Amino acid sequence: MPEPARSSPQSTLDRDAGLLWHPYGPLDAGAHFSVTGAAGAYVELCDTSGSPHRLLDGMSSWWAVVHGYRHPVMDAALTHQIRSFSHVMFGGLTHGPAVDLAEHLVAVTPAGLDHVYLADSGSVSVEVALKLATQYQQARGRDRSRFLALEGAYHGDTTGAMSVCDPVGGMHADFAGLLSPQLFLPRPPLPEASTVEVDAWVVRAENLVDMHGSELAGIIVEPLFQGAGGMRPYHPAALRALRRLATEIDAVFIADEIATGFGRTGADFACRSAGITPDVMCLGKALTGGYLTLAALMCSGPIAEVITASSHRALMHGPTFMANPLACAAATASVGLLFTDDTSGWEPAIARISPALTAGLAPAREMAHVAEVRVTGGIGVIELERPVDVGLTTRIAAEHGVWLRPFRRHIYTMPPYISTPETMATITAAMVAAAAAHSEGDLQ
Fold first, then answer.
1. By CB neighbour count within 10 A (0-12 exposed, 13-18 middle, 19+ buried), where does 142 fall?
2. Which of 44, 46, 41, 52 is nearest to 31 (CA)?
3. Which of the 8 DSSP states describes residue 267?
4. For burial by CB atoms within 10 Å, which of 16, 43, 139, 174 has the most?
5. What is the pLDDT at residue 10?
6. Known binding-site residue numbers for substrate
7. What domains appear along the chain, each with residue ranges and CATH number?
């Protein structure tokens, strides 16, 4: 077999088009840039003309690279582990990196989440959570297999996860015939909603659970902030009501904290800030600092005890790369950095980032074609009145030294936690400029 061709970054872009699919993109679309390197908060790229760029990564590579690229602590953890072993099956075997990570996660997550399942990715952890809830109900002698979710939800691209994503406005409407029919509540009220609005939504949730409680294996939510479904925060009273309803009907309450966990919404975990503990919590993205794919499912003792006492005695899922040692080593290092008291920790990071987002995005509030500007912890969103021109936004942001990847009507950032006030000013200026370029005059 011939050696793969070695080429310049420019020719890499040419070779990519028509060869590789990119997320939610046509086969012949290719990519905007070819990456040649990355360090800290910056990625080094080459465009189609061969010109080099050094851009701030305002996306944290889809919310995962929170410590930046080539972080010395992360690099050292991977180097140390690879010198011992990179992978070993987890069936019948264990290893230090997996146990270390599980102990760390039990220590930092809300009390009572004492058991850990290490999955391949965020979507897979959601699949495992849905299977766990179904097994739990079977073990209790019940025929329950449906789930209650929220309109506007996004939980991943695998089949079970798609079934609990928004069934109409989401990205998976074409697969309706493939998916199990689930129940959906309207999007919860915004954090600033009145007591009357919140109470009305809670009554609607109570009525739906009263009608269908005997069918529900579980309730699944992104706590306090819906990500890819609309970049939208919601009122904590709605989350507390769903936790209460799950308890009342003995449904498994699943918190998908893949995007919201590890400080992103302004608390270590969104559930804790709302004063609730789920039965199951899914974690991912920042878990490994973006170095490798890994997710964790945290489970409460009472749920785990029912599974253990069932006929299977096991949670019926077991991927080949479960608890991959390299990924576990990366995750342990990442969690250690996130929960330190120095500038590497999530808390001082959000204390820097959140006010910088509020100040930097303020000019967009005055634009007539901007529907809303929102800041939630380390998340900044400019929502337009109409769909974003992705190409225009990417170009304008790059001209301002920033990599952004907008979607639907949202120009947004989830910046790395290593961001400084100076880099935050650059990111927000690029977002405001991209929003300004969408005015009627500029688009004409």
1. middle
2. 46
3. S
4. 43
5. 63
6. 62, 154, 285, 318, 405
7. 12-67+344-437 (3.90.1150.10), 72-340 (3.40.640.10)
